[in-house]
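Hi V.,

Quick status before I head out on leave. The structure for the redesign project is tokenized and pasted below; the design run finished overnight.
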């Protein structure tokens, strides 16, 4: 169904909507939003807003009570819509740091996602907070007070652990150290999708992969000079020379490639530190023990997680799904090398065990996203720099 047509021109002089705390010009769009929030369809709300506008045309002012009465008449009584009174919501300003911005339920719910909550729960919490602000009749709220209210609402609705994760992330955002989140893991475990979703929930704009780093290095370094980066991780051994002893050729080739690509990984990390920018790096070439993470201790928060898929059937399913969106990645290419990929994963698991890197078994995408977010906030909390201060 298309957008309903307007009922004609409207004078630039709008009636003022008044209540006990002030007045503001009548705006049809705000009334449409209010009616839709009470259960009306867009078409119903738009038609009713047009009729209300015609009814008050030429008046200097109208009270909120009169508007509510007009709406009730159009819908056949107050019971036709949800029981909340009709309100034309005022813009609530969020102040702080010498500036202000309009309160946004969407922006607030987005910020709550860092607490590792379901998006639906985040929206419900944001809606509760909006309702409380409107109920108080506030026209502005200081940013710190809004964060305290968010902490209290999360605590009440979802529990103290969730509220603490929100507190930790909000306080971390006030620090001067960037977050460098590293997601290692072999081909097909779902690192890229997880990195993108976690970045969205944390509000991190920079996401990169070791595949992208390797592609740049391929342009700069010829196959004759560095052959290992011109092939996949699981068959890099095919371009190397003879191996001494009983060393596993697949693992040797993989580690040789990773050692070269890790130079680019360090470059990306150093760039993020110099720009004081959060970044998520994902890829098979991020090896536990290969990067000197302690060197970043004073300048960044580096968190390393290994993403794995311990169920072989999960590999088959991901490779098949991957092939649908990338013609140059047929499933047989990966399935034909599944044994090598699993050997690389076993090697990564052993390195993670030695170096104390947490594991995320990507059985469920949503559960893995929440697990990564919990790891991040818990790691930040354990480092002790944030303390137990007020959530503001």
């Amino acid at each position: 169904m298309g957008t309903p047509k307007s009922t004609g021109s409207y004078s630039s002089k709008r009636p003022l909507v008044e209540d006990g705390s002030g007045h503001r010009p009548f705006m049809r769009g705000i009334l449409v939003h209010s009616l839709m929030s009470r259960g009306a369809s867009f078409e119903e709300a738009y038609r009713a807003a047009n009729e209300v506008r015609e009814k008050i045309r030429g008046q200097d002012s109208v009270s909120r009570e009169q508007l509510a009465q007009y709406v009730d008449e159009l819908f056949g009584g107050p019971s036709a819509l949800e029981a909340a009174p009709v309100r034309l919501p005022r813009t609530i300003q969020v102040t702080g740091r010498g500036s202000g911005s309009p309160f946004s339920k969407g922006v607030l719910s987005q910020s709550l996602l860092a607490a590792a909550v379901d998006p639906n729960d985040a929206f419900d919490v944001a809606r509760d907070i909006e309702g409380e602000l409107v109920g108080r009749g506030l026209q502005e709220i200081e940013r710190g007070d809004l964060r305290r209210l968010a902490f209290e609402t999360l605590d009440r609705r979802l529990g103290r652990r969730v509220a603490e994760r929100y507190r930790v992330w909000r306080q971390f955002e006030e620090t001067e150290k960037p977050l460098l989140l590293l997601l290692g893991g072999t081909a097909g475990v779902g690192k890229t999708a997880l990195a993108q979703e976690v970045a969205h929930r944390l509000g991190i704009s920079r996401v990169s992969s070791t595949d992208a780093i390797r592609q740049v290095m391929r342009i700069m370094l010829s196959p004759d000079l560095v052959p290992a980066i011109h092939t996949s991780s699981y068959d890099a051994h095919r371009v190397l020379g003879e191996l001494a002893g009983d060393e596993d050729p697949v693992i040797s080739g993989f580690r040789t490639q990773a050692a070269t690509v890790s130079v680019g990984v360090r470059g990306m990390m150093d760039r993020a530190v110099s720009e004081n920018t959060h970044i998520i790096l994902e890829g098979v070439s991020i090896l536990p023990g290969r990067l000197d993470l302690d060197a970043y201790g004073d300048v960044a928060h580096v968190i390393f997680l290994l993403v794995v898929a311990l169920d072989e059937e999960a590999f088959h399913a991901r490779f098949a799904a991957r092939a649908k969106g990338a013609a140059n990645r047929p499933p047989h290419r990966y399935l034909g090398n599944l044994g090598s990929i699993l050997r690389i994963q076993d090697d990564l698991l052993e390195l993670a065990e030695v170096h104390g890197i947490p594991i995320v078994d990507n059985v469920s995408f949503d559960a893995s996203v929440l697990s990564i977010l919990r790891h991040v906030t818990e790691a930040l909390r354990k480092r002790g720099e944030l303390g137990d201060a007020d959530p503001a």
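Above is the designed sequence. The chain has three domains: 16-80, 93-172, 179-361.

G. will cover questions while I'm gone.

Best,
W.
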